[in-house]
UniProtKB/TrEMBL annotation:
Keyword Glycosyltransferase: no
Taxonomy, superkingdom: Eukaryota
Matches recorded under InterPro entries: DIOX_N, IPNS-like_FE2OG_OXY, IPNS-like_sf, Iron_ascorbate_oxido_reductase, Oxoglu/Fe-dep_dioxygenase_dom
Family listed: Belongs to the iron/ascorbate-dependent oxidoreductase family.
SUPFAM superfamilies per record: Clavaminate synthase-like
Name of protein: Fe2OG dioxygenase domain-containing protein
Record-level Gene Ontology MF annotations: metal ion binding; oxidoreductase activity
Keywords: Iron, Metal-binding, Oxidoreductase
Residue ranges annotated for the Fe2OG dioxygenase domain, each copy included: 187-288
One Pfam family here: DIOX_N
Length: 357
């Protein structure tokens, strides 16, 4: 990636602290999924108070994750010319990419994306009047040859974990355990292999800039180098999540924030880089079907707690988001805040209703 050019440099207020001044956070929930006692309330408290947590005894075989991690390292070790053979484009949105932007600033990373269900359907464009669908197919490099099999085996274990976590989240909200299952029947789940090379100016650039995940649930493996930072809900401070062997970091996505009518909120996070070590991570983005209409669940709204969001289509939302991966936009990319029903709007609507009557 070479020296840090202007495209990578964060605005002054969003630059990370110098690596020498970073301290790891205490108190981040670490939940044992093999222990049934109090599990539902633990998950609920973590979602409500933190927006993310770590899980151990998660059921994903260690050897499957290690095999994918080893394959990932081999792939990113290839020459740029080889990796570019499966480079993503606006039409072929899966494969390799090294110029992604977050909040209109380029990320110090390279990635390889694949969908959990192949083929996969998403809207061809963000235009609400365009009903055309784009069929996504995974693209695999010639080397390493085991990457395809390692990826497909890994997602089997991750899907089981994702559904288990969604059941626990549903129960913690007072819902039936399978309440969310139907949304994921034709899921748009994808997996990303991340590689963060050493950066000569880690106090100016970020591996991934500050953002919230727009989907359902994110389940992250990070290697022992670390770098994930989360904005703590209690005080707004950026805290560093220390890598814990054989754990996954789980964070609530925007869709759960909307479904729960803000009982649970997605959390802002970012990734730091360093000047000495490269870093690898594997996030699994558990996302619903493209035709899902996202709105606060009926069971969680009433007169005292009316819906806080207007309904939106997940596929169109996803299609709009993907545009910013390929070009720097003139405005901030779409957020769920654009669908939030403000109290002022509620009052205005009520006044109009009274006047019309």
């Amino acid at each position: 990636m070479g020296a840090v050019d202007q495209a990578f440099i964060q605005a002054q207020e969003h630059r990370p602290a110098k690596p020498s001044s970073i301290t790891y956070a205490e108190g981040i929930p670490l939940i044992d999924l093999s222990s049934p006692d109090g599990l539902v309330s633990e998950i609920g408290n973590a979602c409500k108070n933190w927006g993310f947590f770590q899980v151990v005894n998660h059921g994903v075989p260690l050897e499957k994750r290690q095999k994918l991690e080893d394959s990932s390292r081999k792939f990113f070790g290839l020459s740029s010319e080889e990796k570019m053979k499966i480079r993503r484009t606006e039409k072929q949105v899966l494969g390799y990419y090294d110029t992604e932007h977050t909040k209109n600033v380029r990320d110090w990373k390279e990635v390889f994306d694949f969908v959990a269900k192949d083929p996969n359907l998403i809207p061809a464009s963000p235009d609400p009047h365009d009903n055309e669908l784009l069929e996504l197919h995974n693209v695999w490099p010639q080397y390493p040859p085991e990457l395809k099999e390692a990826s497909e085996e890994y997602v089997k274990g991750m899907e089981k974990l994702a559904f288990k976590l969604m059941e626990l989240i549903a129960l913690s909200l007072g819902l039936q355990a399978n309440r969310f299952h139907s949304f994921f029947r034709d899921q748009t789940t994808f997996v990303r292999l991340n590689h963060y090379p050493p950066c000569p100016a880690p106090d100016l650039a970020l591996g991934v800039g500050r953002h919230k995940d727009g989907g359902g649930l994110t389940i992250l493996f990070q290697d022992d180098v670390g770098g994930l930072q989360v904005k703590r809900k209690s005080d707004g401070e950026w805290i560093t999540v220390k890598p814990t062997p054989d754990t996954y970091i789980v964070n609530v996505g925007d869709i759960i924030q909307v479904w729960s009518n803000e009982a649970y909120e997605s959390v802002e996070h970012r990734v730091m880089v360093n000047s000495e070590k490269e870093r690898y991570s594997i996030p699994y983005f558990f996302n619903p079907a493209h035709y899902t209409m996202v709105e606060p669940l009926e069971e969680l709204t009433n007169e005292q707690s009316p819906p806080k969001y207007k309904t939106y289509n997940w596929g169109k939302f996803l299609s709009t988001r993907k545009l910013s991966n390929f070009k720097k936009l003139s405005v901030e990319n779409i957020q769920i805040s654009h669908f939030r029903i403000s109290e002022l709007a509620d009052k205005l609507e009520g006044a109009l209703s009274i006047n019309n009557n």
